[in-house]
Amino acid sequence: MSRREMNFVEHSTGVNGLEKVILREVRGFSAEVYLYGGQVTSWKNELGEELLFVSSKANFMPPKAIRGGIPISFPQFSNHGFLEQHGFARNRLWVLDPNPPPFPTTSTNKAYIDLLLKHTEDDAKNWPHRCEFRLRITLGPGGDLMLTSRIRNTNTDGKSFTFTFAYHTYFAVTDISEVRVEGLETLDYLDNLKNRERFTEQGDAITFESEVDKVYLSTPTKIAIIDHERKRTFVVRKDGLPDAVVWNPWDKKAKTLSDFGDDEYKHMLCVEAACVEKPITLKPGEEWKGRQEISAVPSSYFSGQLDPRRVLLYSNP
Ligand SMILES: O=P(O)(O)OC[C@H]1O[C@@H](O)[C@H](O)[C@@H](O)[C@@H]1O
Hints:
Blueprint: E1 9-13, E2 19-24, E3 30-34, E4 39-44, E5 72-73, E6 95-96, E7 111-118, H1 121-126, E8 131-139, E9 145-153, E10 161-167, E11 170-172, E12 179-182, E13 188-191, E14 197-200, E15 212-216, E16 222-227, E17 232-239, E18 243-248, H2 250-256, E19 268-282, E20 287-298, H3 308-314
Antiparallel strand pairs: 1-2, 2-3, 3-4, 5-10, 6-7, 7-8, 8-9, 9-20, 10-19, 11-19, 12-16, 13-14, 13-15, 15-18, 16-17, 17-20, 18-19
């Protein structure tokens, strides 16, 4: 199919009648986004292989968040505050943004949508602020998936607000015990399993043999997740998001999650571009931007560095 005939953006109905949007690119890549949560729930390569994990037990039913894909933690990461766990953005109905402010750079991407989350009077009871959260989700011609969040303080009472944030990305992996994460070695992290105590990561790349729930601090902008068995490497690139959360519930915790299969921990790993340690403060009228771009490449392309041809070809803004 030629690029001109292609339907890059299709509006459709998903599980339980929830509205979703399918993004497609010419070579066969696709992604699905639910308006509920403003949440990516599928990202497939040109062979139709699913790259994100969504639990077989996920509830696609408000008010619970969808377990898998890319939920958004806002305005509170996890339980680091007095709001509901991971904030409210992941269990609100977003709307299509009819008139998003332009991005400073022009791009020829066609498979994208703009979503908007407006803070309701109801939400304001728990979080007494006004804000506009604009989310652009783009599927690039090379299959890369880009999420850009623009959050603006629209308070009219002159008050600033403060938030923490994460793109809670669930990557699909073949076997967690054969997975390695590169880019976080020797960094400091807060261990959520040890009262957020601060430690320093030792040695080599990170591997997995038990529950992990860590917030790595001030990480490089590029992190690689290597799935040895599938010979696939996910590359996470991030901007405006200094931290990175790594989470896998392992067997015991998995059993306590009602929307997560007992053995599913073997096939997922969350690596989350985040801003946790130093919350962001916005004055009225100010805007913050945070961006995550993920790509999946054959592992042979990755040897400590991204393949330079891909970087040149697909580094879209
Ligand atoms: O079950 P939830 O609310 O989606 O959270 C899942 C996990 O999300 C991670 O980001 C947190 O670090 C964990 O502490 C938490 O358990």
